[in-house]
Amino acid sequence: TPKDFLQCLTLEHARSLLHRGENVLNVALTAGLSGPGRLHDLCVTLEAASPGEMKTGGADLTIDYGFAMTPFGEALIGETARGICHLSFLNGDGRDGARRLLVDQWPAAKLQRNDKRAGKLAAQIFARRETETRPRLRAFVRGTPFQLRVWRALLQVPPGALTSYGRISAAINQPIAARAVGSAVGVNPIAFLIPCHRVIRETGVLGNYRWDPVRKRAILAWELAAHPALNAYAA
Asked: What global pTM score does this model have?
């Protein structure tokens, strides 16, 4: 079960990933597992683009985007005046591929490069602090009504916990829509903030991750390190 799987995802297991040579995220895992800090939970308000904005591809929008280092590698972060509209981790296609993905999502928007702003957002999103104060972040996304329901349900899964596609479908009152839920999870435009990494298969298998399964495992270990006593989430 997801609960059994979470209990098996111990700090010792995360450490074994390093010993197996998965050094791409070495710094992230070391930072995530060595410090006593509490994961800085996020409060995210999700706003959807209107049908007109979706139809025009964001023609009236200006997106400040930039590249920033995170505990899980380099990321591209995009922000409009209405909130963060894009967060993706760089994979094999590098910066050019990440920028193309942003353009695909908002083809008519005006893009402005701003690495400094992206760095500030990354520091806020991935902060670990002892304080209980939570940053309030706004997200602005393109999505169908069904996708938005799935993404909002994901925002209710706390850090360090896991859920499944079936539980998410039950949470949105669509108990036989687990496959459609999986599709909505897979096109999440804001990695980490909308925590699709916390969804696993009903069998307890970690499953795929758009930004690399190794990164998914590292993020879960990083969150679990800050919430070691947390049980699996039940939607």
From this structure: 0.78
